[in-house]
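Letters spell out the chain; the tokens describe the backbone. To illustrate:

===
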Amino acid sequence: MFITFEGPEGAGKSTLIRSLASELESLGHDVLTTREPGAGEFGQAIRSLLLHGDDLPATSEVFLFLADRSHHMVKIIQPALNEDRVVLCDRHAESTIVYQGYARGLDVELLRKMNLMATGNVRPDLIFLLDLPVEVGLSRIENKDRLDSEPIEFHQKVRDGFLAEREREPSRWHKIDATQAPQAILTEALGEIKKRLK
């Protein structure tokens, strides 16, 4: 099962993924946790360029994210899925649609096609949207990277984009109120995964 985690900055995706991996492993599932960008040596090099480098044109951002995604899918995600592992991925294709499409203004439909090319038409079985007001999320971040430091208007477009994508395909998305306590978020997410694994 391929599960991805999306949402505005500071929503708590990484914390939830760690807790879910532990819970699922205790139930006997073989779990892979990974992230985009930043999986493996190739991904880490791209992550450094994207999050800690100079300002980039939106199109350069897209091609870097897609290069990472293609490599990630072929080298890490697909082999794990072939072994019937549960893959938990911190950000994936929907982030590119939202950040570079809704927030940066690039063509959303073109980005959908480019994502499918990068992933070999593989899409997540379940997408968790950890949703919270942008001011709350940004206040949780101590060391801001290049994207975290964008103006508040940018982050609002990101949140609105995620909500719009969730409305577009509600069967694949599960929205969670990320202002809740971590244990409540974990309980809700684990319940949804168990339901779908059956």
